[in-house]
Amino acid sequence: MTLRLRDARGFTLIEMAVVVLILGLIAAFSVPAFLKLNKSLQLKGSVQQVAGQLQLARQKAMATGMPQVMHLYAGTYGVDYHIHNTGQPPTGMWKFPPGVSYLWSTGTLSGQMVTMKADGRADRSGYVILQSGSLSDTVQVQLSGLVLLQ
Q1: Which whole number is the average pLDDT over 74-79?
Q2: Which residues contact 24 (CB under 8 A, 6 or more apart)?
Q3: % of the chain with per-residue pLDDT over 70
Q4: DSSP per residue over 28-70, as a string?
Q5: Nearest CA to 93 among 84, 103, 101?
Q6: Is the pLDDT reported for residue 85 higher than 90?
Q7: What is residue 122's three-state secondary structure?
């Protein structure tokens, strides 16, 4: 029995090229969407981390009876924000993911710091606005000491 060309099994070059083209199109649309999602999630995580540290500073101030000062100075001590009480070394230091930074504008915390007092109140109110590219998210600090995600 002889094999004829029509009896050969497998994929033609055109069929394989079409599959590769379809996979390329899927990758071309999904990679940018994935990168944007990753930026968005990093920003959201950073905002939640700042809010959590502010809430923790408030709780620590109430528990110990000593004020807790959070400085929001990017680059100081090689980090983006830290708790640094007067006359003491920093007790906590944190850094944002690459691409996440502060956006200082009207309404943000004056002096780039907030002190959580022993009575649970904050010494000032305002916003901590973080940005990643064109995305931004906000943490609000109220005089009552309440920390809200916006």
Answers
A1: 86
A2: none
A3: 93
A4: HHHHHHHHHHHHHHHHHHHHHHHHHHHHHHHHHHHHHSS-EEE
A5: 84
A6: no
A7: strand
Length of the chain: 150
- Phi and psi based region of residue 44 (left: phi greater than 0; alpha: psi -120 to 50; beta: remaining): alpha
What is the token pair recorded at 114?
Answer: 């907030």
Q: What is the pLDDT of residue 7?
A: 63
Query: For the chain, first and last CA: distance in Å?
Result: 77
pTM of the model: 0.79
Q: What are phi and psi of 91, to 5 degrees?
A: -100, -15
DSSP one-letter code for 16: H
Judged against a pLDDT cut of 90, whether residue 86 lies above it is answered with: no
